Structure formats: C-alpha cells, structure tokens
Amino acid sequence: MFGMEAFSFEILNICQSATFPVDAAESQRRRKMKETLKPGIEHEFSFTITESKLVPALYPEAEEFRVMPDVFATGYMVGLIEWVCIQALNPHLDWPEEQSVGTRIDVSHLAATPPGLEVLVKVRLVEKEGRRLVFEVEAHDSLDLISKGRHERFIINKTKFDLKQEEKIRAAAARDH
C-alpha cells in the first residue's frame, strides 16, 4: 500500500504545481471549468469485453498473468471506470486544454466477467472541491454487479502538466548519468 500512497501523493503534487496560475489575469484565463461542473452529473457507458481486456492480456510478458483465467482484468476494469468518468467530465471542461487525471481509486471487483459480455459502467459526481472531484461508480455485466466504489480525479491544465512531466524525465535522466 505504501507504493500506492506514494504514487497518489506524487500525482497530487504534479496536479497542484501544474495548475496554479501566477497572477490574477492568469488566474482568470485559466479558470475555465464550466458552471455546469457540479455534483449530480451522471453518465453511463457500455463496453463489450474482448480478448484484449482479459487477465492474460494485462501484462503479456508476465507468465503469472498469461496462465490466469480468461476473465475481465481488474486493471482494465479500473481503466474503463476512469474512461466513463472522463466522458462525464469533458462536456464541463475546456477540453482538451483542461483534462482530469485519476488520483485515487477504491473499488471492489465482485464477480468475474467472461469475454463477450457487455459491461455497463455508471458514474455520478458526488463531490467537487476546487479541482478535486469524487465519483461514486458501479459496473454490471449482463448478470452481476461486478464493481462498486469511489474514484477521485483532479482537473489539470494539460500543457502545464506535460511540461512538469518533461522536467521530471530530464531530472531522472540527469540522475541516471
């Protein structure tokens, strides 16, 4: 768990440093979230599970995954949940300049889903605190509730976020030399 907390902390640091404007004029220019971005936003999306979204496909270089059952992978389920949250948010942002990144995920994976079944993901924005957003999420396949929980996202300025990542890459390269 320490690794996830450190990852979440790093993403929050990047989000915060990547979006703070420098003066009042810059602040007004960067304040692009639409007034419609508020709790209560709901969205749903269906996706048919294919072979490429099964556990053995998650890390094909890992034999441990390759020999596991052919069911919808938790890692891909998390990605699907994130995708539906992004779809819910984009009409309320100045997309693609404004985007959101996942900073926390707390979901169950309650039932296995074989390939060919359709998964319906439903999300609802329940909290908005500045650029921090929290969704309640759930997913059902054709027969079962397969996931339920919460997902947190943070709104970023894409250009500034990318610049921060480029700085990090340069710092890592300098450290390795």
Structural topology:
Blueprint: H1 2-19, H2 24-30, E1 42-48, H3 55-58, H4 63-66, H5 74-89, E2 98-107, E3 118-129, E4 132-140, E5 145-157, H6 158-176
Antiparallel strand pairs: 1-3, 2-5, 3-4, 4-5
Helix pairs in contact: 1-6
Could you walk me through the main structural features you see in this protein, from its secondary elements to its overall organization?
- The longest helix has 19 residues, at 158-176.
- The protein has 177 residues and is of the alpha+beta class.
- The two termini are 30 Å apart.
- The protein has helices spanning 2-19, 24-30, 55-58, 63-66, 74-89, 158-176, and strands at 42-48, 98-107, 118-129, 132-140, 145-157.
- The chain has one domain (2-19, 35-170): Thiol Ester Dehydrase, Chain A (Roll), CATH 3.10.129.10.
- It has 6 helices and 5 strands, in the order ααβαααββββα.
How is this structure best summarized?
The protein is of the alpha+beta class and 177 residues long.
CATH class group: Alpha Beta
Distance between the termini: 30 Å
Summarize the amount of helix as a percent range. 25-40%
The CATH superfamily is identified as Hotdog Thioesterase
CATH topology title: Thiol Ester Dehydrase, Chain A
Radius of gyration over alpha carbons?
Answer: 18 Å
Question: Which CATH-level-2 architecture?
Answer: Roll
Number of domains: 1
Secondary-structure element string: HHEHHHEEEEH
Side by side, the strands of the main sheet go 1-3-4-5-2
Number of strands: 5
Q: Helix- and strand-based class?
A: alpha+beta
Hey, roughly how much beta strand do the residues contain? 25-35%
The residue-averaged pLDDT reads 88
Uncertain spans: 1-9, 13-30
Question: Count of helical segments?
Answer: 6
Biggest pleated sheet: 5 strands, antiparallel
Principal-axis shape equals flat
